C-alpha cells in the first residue's frame, strides 16, 4: 500500500490540526497517511505522494515550509504532491482574493508543480500572539476566531485521495 505524507508548517497549531484532518480523511478513505512537521522530515523515499501545507505569515508560506520544498525539490518533482494553505485574509472568491492567494505560494510553485492546491480559512487566537503579531493583526484587519471549515477540508481531501491505484 502506498503511503502519503501530510507535511505541515504551523505557527500556533491551526495548520497542524488541518494537516491531521487531511490525514484522518485519507485514512478513512483507505489510504495510509502520516502527518509530520516539515522540520521533522529528512527523507521522502518511504512515501508515494506528499501533501504539504503551511500557515501564512507576511503574505508567504512559513520559511520552514519553503525550505522543505527547496530541500526536497527533486524528490517532490518525481511524485504526486499537493499544497494547502491556511490563512485569514483574501477569503472570498473574488478575482483579487484569488490573485492574492496565488501569490502566497508563488515561490513554491516556481520550484514544483502541485497537482492540486487548496486555501482554507484558519484560526487565530489573539491571546496567543506576541505584541508585534497583535499589531500586525490589527493593521491587516484580519478576522480573529476559528474560521476553519472542516467539511471543505474533507471535501478537498477527496480530490487528492488515491483513486483506482493512482495517488493524488
Describe, in plain words, how this protein is organized in 3D.
- The chain has 168 residues and is of the alpha/beta class.
- The protein contains 7 helices and 8 strands; from the N terminus they run βαβββααβααββαβα.
- The chain has helices at 14-28, 63-71, 73-76, 95-104, 106-111, 131-140, 150-160; strands spanning 3-9, 32-37, 49-57, 60-61, 81-87, 116-121, 123-124, 145-146.
- Strands 1, 2, 3, 4, 5 and 6 form a 6-stranded mixed beta sheet that branches. A two-stranded antiparallel sheet has the order 7-8.
- The model has no long low-confidence stretch (mean pLDDT 88).
Name the average pLDDT: 88
What sequence of helices (H) and strands (E) makes up the elements? EHEEEHHEHHEEHEH
Termini distance?
14 Å
What profile does the largest beta sheet have? 6 strands, mixed
Give the % helix.
Answer: 25-40%
Q: Radius of gyration from the CA trace? A: 15 Å
Uncertain segments: none
Helix count, DSSP H or I runs of 4 or more residues: 7
Q: Beta-strand percentage?
A: 15-25%
Shape from CA axes? globular
Report the structural category.
alpha/beta
Please tally the β strands and state the result: 8
Counting copies of identical and different chains, the oligomeric state is: single chain
Amino acid at each position: 500500500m502506498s503511503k502519503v505524507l501530510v507535511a505541515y508548517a504551523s505557527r500556533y497549531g491551526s495548520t497542524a490540526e488541518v494537516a491531521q484532518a487531511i490525514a484522518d480523511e485519507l485514512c478513512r478513505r483507505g489510504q495510509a497517511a502520516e502527518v509530520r512537521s516539515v522540520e521533522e522530515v529528512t527523507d521522502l523515499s518511504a512515501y508515494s505522494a506528499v501533501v504539504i501545507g503551511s500557515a501564512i505569515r507576511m503574505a508567504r508560506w512559513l520559511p520552514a515550509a519553503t525550505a522543505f520544498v527547496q530541500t526536497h525539490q527533486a524528490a517532490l518533482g518525481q511524485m504526486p504532491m499537493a499544497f494547502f494553505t491556511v490563512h485569514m485574509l483574501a477569503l472570498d472568491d473574488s478575482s483579487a482574493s484569488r490573485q492574492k492567494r496565488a501569490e502566497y505560494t508563488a515561490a513554491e510553485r516556481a520550484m514544483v508543480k502541485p497537482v492540486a492546491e487548496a486555501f482554507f480559512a484558519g484560526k487565530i487566537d489573539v491571546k496567543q500572539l506576541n505584541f508585534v503579531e497583535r499589531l500586525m493583526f490589527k493593521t491587516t484587519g484580519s478576522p480573529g476566531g476559528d474560521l476553519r471549515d472542516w467539511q471543505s477540508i474533507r471535501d478537498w481531501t477527496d480530490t487528492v485521495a488515491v483513486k483506482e491505484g493512482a495517488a493524488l
